[in-house]
Amino acid sequence: MSRNGYGARVAQEVTEITYRQLDYWARTGLVGSSIREASGRGSRRVYSFEDLVALRVVAGLLGAGVSLKAVRRAVGYLQRHTDRPLSTLALIPKGRSVCVLTEDRAKMLEASSHGQVVITIEVEPIVKSLRAEVTVISAPRMINVRARGRAYKVVCTPDLEAGGYAVTVPELPGCFTEGDSVAEIRRMVREAIGLWLDADAAPGKARRARAAG
User: Fold this and answer.
1) Which domain holds residue 203?
2) Beta-carbon neighbour count of residue 77 at 10 Å?
3) Do 47 and 121 belong to one domain?
4) Cα–Cα distance between 120 and 107 in angstroms, integer?
5) How many domains does the chain have?
C-alpha cells in the first residue's frame, strides 16, 4: 500500500469523519496518525493509507450500532493479539461486540464481548473505494490564468499532506507558487508569472544596453 502521507483535511474528506472525531480518536489512542502525530500548536497529523482504512472501518462499526466502548476494546484486543493491521482484517459486528475472521474463514475470534446479530463489514471493498477516492483527489487540475495580456495554462497539484496546491506554469520552466483556493491560486500565479517574465527579460535588456554603449 501507499506510504504517502495524508493530512487531516484529506482524512475528513475520504472517511466522512469530523475533525473533532479525528482529534478525539487520536488523543485517546483509538486510531491515530502513524506517519506523524501532532506535537504541539501548529503541528499537523499525517496519516498513512492504512490509517484512512482503519478510520473508515471504525466509523463503519459505529454506524452498525457497535458502541464506542466495544470498538475501543476490539481495536485494543486486535493490537495485542495480531500483527495484521486493521486495514487487512474482516471485522464482524455482533450486536454490541466485534469479532474478527481468522485465517480459517469458518472461525471467528471474539474481540470484545458476546453479541447477537451478525453484520459483516468487508474491509477489501473499503480499501478499493478509498484507493479510487484518493486517486481522484490527488489528480492535478488545469486552469487558465491571464497575466500580462495573455492566457497561460496552469497545473494545480493537490498537496495531500499539507493541504492546498502546488502550482506550476509548464510554459515557463521554474515558475511555481502555492495556494489554498482557486481564487488565491489565480492571484499568486499572476504575481509569479510577472516576476518570471521580468527576470527573463532582464538579461536581454542588459545585453542591449551594453551593445548601445
Assistant:
1) 140-212
2) 16
3) yes
4) 13
5) 2
pTM of the model: 0.70
Q: Give CA angle at 54 (122, 126), nearest 5°.
A: 35
191 and 172 within one domain: yes
Q: Is residue 1 part of a domain?
A: no
Count the Cβ atoms, other than its own, within 10 Å of residue 189: 26
Query: pLDDT digit of tens for each residue in the chain (213 aa)?
Result: 345 799 999 999 988 889 999 999 999 888 889 898 887 776 789 998 888 988 887 887 788 777 787 778 767 666 655 555 665 555 656 655 566 555 544 444 555 544 433 344 566 777 888 899 999 999 999 999 999 999 999 999 999 998 899 999 999 999 999 999 999 999 999 999 999 999 988 765 544 333 333
What are the phi and psi torsion angles at 121 (to 5°)?
-105, 110
Q: How many residues does the chain have?
A: 213
